[in-house]
Amino acid sequence: MxxxxxxxxxxxxxxxxxxxxxxxxxxxxxxxxxxxKTGTTIAGIIFKDGxxxxxxxxxxxGPIVADKNCKKIHYLAKNMYCxxxxxxxxxxxxxxxxxxxxxxxxxxxxxxVQVVVANTLLKQMLFRYQGHISAxxxxxxxxxxxxxxxxxxxHGSTDKLPYTTMGSGTLAAMAVFEARWKPDMSEEExxxxxxxxxxAGVFNDLGSGSNVDLCVIRKDSADYLRGYEYxxxxxERQLDYSFKIGSTAxxxxxxxxxxxxEEIRFVPMDTA
Length: 272
What we know:
The chain has a domain at 42-229: Glutamine Phosphoribosylpyrophosphate, subunit 1, domain 1 (4-Layer Sandwich). By secondary structure, it is an alpha+beta fold. Helix 2 (88-109) crosses helix 3 and helix 4 packs antiparallel against helix 5 (187-204). The protein contains 5 helices and 12 strands. It has helices spanning 17-27, 88-109, 115-128, 170-180, 187-204; strands at 42-47, 50-56, 59-61, 64-67, 73-77, 80-86, 135-143, 146-152, 158-160, 163-166, 211-218, 222-230.
């Protein structure tokens, strides 16, 4: 067998292919692609009787707050939900797709779907696209084998943990979990802990904000607490700052006339 039939291994060291590509784009008059920065704080813990998921509700578009009340905790099945960080369209699309697959699995087997099935379907889907689907997920659920929390990264790697966080506010939220989480927490203790973790992400990360959403999943029920707390309240003015006309003295008035030349050009549409 000839050696040319084998695929050539990549050379060690930094790969400059993308740098050359960007330089070529700039040379031809195109704008170089930039990295996409997303902001979110999502978290999940295991407590005595199940799992608790939490998320903020701010969706950003660059420096602009695009949605103040974005839904980031997605329904998968009656016994499991999934928090999504990253591109909002990607997280919504992939959770809807897996939700339908889980329902078909339940109808075919006639049994409650285990949480590990959802984890496997999500990680296989993300790995197939090699990270191009911008969806970092926190999966939580309860089945007949126990309570589970999974963190699922955009490239398809997963971790099974007693508590986890994802998103740009993950460091602040994880600091709260590592300091205060303990096994066999009560439901109220767990809700307070997840609320404080999301609040830490909101107050320490510009990409997170607005409300705190919680989802409590037990063995026989699930409660989606939409708008659990509004922690990032807008400041209110203490006084009325409306001044009457004439209260401010006008020292000088100067009026200039400008000639406006308007030119209309038709630019052909690029169909390449």
